[in-house]
Amino acid sequence: MIKNITSLLFLLFPLFGNSQGVLFYTNSGKVNFTSDAPLEVIKASSNSVAGAVKSTDRSFAFSVLVKSFEGFNSSLQRTHFNENYLESDKYPKITFEGKIIEDINLTKDGTYNIRGKGKFSVHGVTQERIIPCKLIVSNGKLTVSASFTVFLDDHNIKIPAIVNQKIAEEILVSINIEMVIKK
């Protein structure tokens, strides 16, 4: 399934073969989330973020399967996360596609504080987002790191009143994605 997502991401960049740029990619990026509610802290992560960044126009696409998240405080929590809240059978992935706002040269080594602007989709709801990120380009590798908040209401994720003190209304998300050049 991860192979299919990676293949799909490369299809998003059909003009790459005609350019003189570089395509960075990964299928093993890391994403973590934390729900820090009054009665419980829930943490989960996935090491299966697939993504691509194109140097010529600074476009990007990232995707992670909802079912790839592990952690939680119990297997029942993970089941509820997939079946009741994110409905992973109906909405199997979380995506972020767009462009880097700043005019930077991704083929030049350096550290860049940038903003990624694009369509962020969770639970079937797509929103335009601008997410501040730190990029490190070094020896043909690109590292992307960021932290941002996702509000459950923004993505029509409903939490039953009986557990609303155990699940935060805003979820802290952090990413750390190491990418290599597609040869």
Overall mean pLDDT stands at 90
Number of domains: 1
Order of helices and strands: HEEEEHEEEEE
Tally of individual helices = 2
Distance between the termini: 22 Å
Helix content: 10-25%
Shape call: elongated
Task: Characterise this structure.
It is a single chain. With 183 residues, the chain is mostly beta strands. It has one domain: Lipid/polyisoprenoid-binding, YceI-like (Lipocalin), CATH 2.40.128.110. It has two helices and nine strands, in the order H-E-E-E-E-H-E-E-E-E-E. The model is unreliable at 4-18 (pLDDT under 50).
Output the keywords.
183 residues; mainly beta; Lipocalin; 8-stranded antiparallel barrel; 2 helices; 9 strands; 11% helix; 52% strand; elongated
In short:
This protein has 183 residues and is mainly beta. The protein has two helices and nine strands; from the N terminus they run αββββαβββββ.
Q: Would you spell out the secondary-structure blueprint of this structure?
A:
Elements: H1 2-11, E1 23-36, E2 41-54, E3 59-65, E4 70-71, H2 75-85, E5 93-100, E6 110-122, E7 125-138, E8 141-151, E9 170-181
Antiparallel strand pairs: 1-2, 1-9, 2-3, 2-4, 3-5, 5-6, 6-7, 7-8, 8-9
